[in-house]
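pasting for the record
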Amino acid sequence: MKQTPPQVHDADLTVTAPPSKSYTHRALIAGSLGQGRTVVTNPLEAEDTRLTLAALRALGVQADLEEDRITIEGCDGLLPTAGETTLDLDNSGTSLRLLTSLALLCRHPVTLTGSQRMQERPIGPLAVALPAIGGRVEFLKKDGYPPLRVSGHLRGGEVTIDGSISSQFISSILAAAPYADSEIVVKIPAPPASASYLDITLDVMSTFGAKVDRTGCERFAVSPTHHYRGREYAVEGDYSSASYFFALAAICGGKVTVKNLAPASVQGDRRFLNALQAMGCTVTYGTQSVTVENSGDLNGITFDMATSPDTVQTLCMVAAMAGSPTTITGISHLKFKESDRINGTADRLRALGGNVTVGDDWITIKPARLHGDTIEPANDHRTAMSFAILGCGIGGITIENAECVDKSFPGFWEQLAGVAP
């Protein structure tokens, strides 16, 4: 499927942010491990979250999906697999990483695999850490990469893990840790990538009844006696998905309001709004909404996006329309996403006439005259959506394989169509 976004001048739009993908994944896991029934309301129904739900069912969890809710019968920390299980997580890195540690709560070994791209995304740091707390890991093709076979029992103890590639390695252990035989202490030797996602993990864990003593992003001690308890849980709106419409206001001028957003959310991608303010936009917070307005030229900035990884590409699109250079730092881990988002974004912007320079941990975008073209997003949902928003600004951009946005934002194209007069 192809999509050609409309060219827009002076947007005037109100949209609703879809539910958070990150919160949905974690709520499904906590509810599945918990004691009693959990009802997850307003879950994100997208490819990635459906993969997590299907995998939990394959591990023996009873979960029923109805309109706007998922009802889960918790297993109280012992996933009732009938035998050795294989989980195909396709292209969902979050699903595969978070579920890897949960395999230690199964009676039988679990093999985790995925798409060809998934088999190129490293999981070695998590695999290296698991033996310290009772796990055994066997790589079935290439050392450090899926597919991998996980067995053992979550014994507990102290574990040191490298989170420089992904904080999801840390979240994986934390999410399972309340069901270890003894306290698990997770030590992080260096600042992790996307540290804000640890805040989301801990937020969900705490809401479901877990107890974690935390020292910054350096040490986490998880109680083995405070288990998850079933509850009704409403998923908050997603700032990552909302960023595309905030960027629309910045690039095209006008005003965009996004509803279903918690102004005090711990989501790291909320910082995207700080970047827009620094570039000259006006940001106004409502009770459950955020409005971005722009009536002038955009200024280039230097901005660290280490805790806001999913909005880096969106910020690159805004930077491409600014009147002075922008440098975005803290992005080295983006090469391990659904695609290499650093070099892939640079190459596509250059194909549109952009002036882009890339380093290992930064990207600089200078003013240039841009033109339309066809963008092939390499099956990366965030590439497709960010370049679609740029297309609203410059016109003439066609997104191929546009259905890849279903990974995180199934209604994206319908909401974007609302900007057309």
